[in-house]
Q: What sequence folds into this?
């Protein structure tokens, strides 16, 4: 008998308080938004060839670049003179993890850089 009375009391309370569906909706909306924000972000669908000239100029020109290659998720540039490179410009482009080792510059670009590397190497190799 007591279980039936609790169930009836709960049903009566839910029927008399119309604000609970709104609260339930808002709580579920907040949970969904938090889950979406925790998802790993994908690299933007940007055509990396748009940045080819800017990358070449920031590395000191095509004559300063020896080789461009992919190193995992990083882009690796071998350059002749590190002093000619403007690495601060890469930060404004959204590059992260910029690492300089001797004449090598590695960074993670905010777009898929395979086409960029291929086009820079084709310019370096004269084709």
A:
């Amino acid at each position: 008998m007591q279980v039936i009375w609790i169930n009836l009391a709960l049903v009566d309370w839910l029927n008399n308080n119309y604000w609970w569906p709104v609260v339930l909706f808002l709580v579920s909306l907040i949970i969904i938004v938090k889950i979406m924000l925790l998802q790993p972000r994908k690299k933007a669908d940007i055509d990396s060839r748009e940045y080819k000239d800017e990358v070449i100029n920031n590395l000191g020109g095509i004559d300063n670049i020896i080789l461009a290659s992919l190193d995992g998720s990083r882009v690796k540039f071998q350059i002749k003179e590190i002093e000619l490179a403007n690495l601060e410009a890469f930060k404004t482009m959204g590059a992260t993890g910029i690492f300089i080792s001797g004449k090598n510059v590695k960074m993670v670009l905010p777009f898929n850089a395979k086409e960029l590397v291929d086009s820079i190497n084709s310019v370096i190799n004269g084709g």
Remarks:
- The first strand starts at residue 65 and ends at 71.
- The chain is about 45% helix and 20% strand.
- The mean pLDDT is 83.
- The first helix runs from residue 2 to 16.
